[in-house]
Amino acid sequence: MTNKPAGHLPRFLLLLCCLSQGACSTLGYYGHAVTGHLDVLRSRQPIQAILENDRADPNLRDKLIHVRELLDFAHDELALPDNGSYRHYADLNRPFVAWNIFAAPELSLQPRSWCYPLAGCFDYRGYFNRDSAMKHAMQLQEQNWDVYVGGVRAYSTLGWFRDPVLNTMLDQDDWKIARLIFHELAHQKLYIKNRIDINEAFAESVARIGLERWLEARGEDAIPIRHALVYEDAFMSLVLDYKERLGALYESDQPRTDKVRRKDQILAELRRDYHQLKQRHDGSDRYDRWISIDLNNAKLAAIATYRQWMPEFMALYTATGNDLASFYSYMESIRHCPDHLLQHRIRQYNPGKSC
Predict the structure, then answer these.
(1) Phi-psi region for residue 120, left (φ > 0), alpha (ψ -120 to 50) or beta?
(2) CA-to-CA distance for 92 and 166, rounded, in angstroms?
């Protein structure tokens, strides 16, 4: 799907029709997905028209000018796809474009997967409507799943459409907008079926590399941004460390009742250590809401989906001599490897071998 040209609506609808064949019980979900995406497309308007409109909101104009600069940088300096994505703007009149549901068993960190013919398997299920997402989340909770619902600022159609800039992407600092756009364009650069963890970590790594280069190119005081990134990395490392502790508990021979009790203790320890980390970073409350609401296996699994493989990708980038062209080329050469070999090739850079 990564190399398909953008803007072919009939082909995408054909894909969704194929997805629904043999899955009549979820036909309503596919209808919801088609309707939601078409609503996004219908809301688009050319960014150039907004910039030429004297009555356009000045703040929006500034943000869209920033996006244009980011796109030029992404195409020229990061070799990310230039296929017309993010040349339009859509105001959806809501804070998120979609809501993703993550679910995991009470005593396991293996996320539930939702699989679809052709598209592959994903560790989450997305909804364009929040009420629909919450309804399905409640059904999963009634089945004793740990559940986490997270709002989504943007999503990639992997080049099938010219993805628009959304209002949900712009309500944040400029450097976060930069990282988000680099992340979404990276999905168009590489997509490996059934490996959502690899895809997300690759995109997150490209986004970090791009952000570092963008900060350097701007020549401005980036110290506050770098402090925020250091804090973010420390927080993610803390969460993933506790995920490993929980994983060891779940795989142990302890009785179920002891596992349930110890699970609660470990999560309480995570909250305690977070507050200590927070104080070392000037008391920033950036992650207070995340740590205090619905802290469970599903939420930890969601973090792992996006970050677990990021250290390996950053090390791989270093092994290429910090050369993005070599980094991309190597990933393209191994993308069809079987899972175990793919993982080995990511961990051990060997440009002379593919599969």
Answers:
(1) left
(2) 7
**DSSP element (H, E) containing 105:** strand 98-105
87-108 burial, b if ≥16 CB within 10 A, otherwise e?
Answer: bbbbbbeeebbbbbbbbbbeee
Give me the residue label for tokens 């999905």: 187
Give every strand in the sheet of 88-90, ordered side by side: 44-46, 88-90, 165-166
pLDDT digits (tens, 9 = 90+) for 201-235: 999 999 999 999 999 987 767 888 999 999 999 99
**Residue type, position 338, single letter:** P
As a whole number of angstroms, the distance between CA 113 and CA 145 comes to 13
Distance separating alpha carbons of residues 158 and 4, to the nearest angstrom = 8
Q: Which of 166, 132, 149, 152 is nearest to 39 (CA)?
A: 166
Q: Interhelix angle for 196-218 vs 174-189, to 10°?
A: 130
* Separation CA 68–CA 303 (nearest Å): 30
User: The pTM is what?
Assistant: 0.89
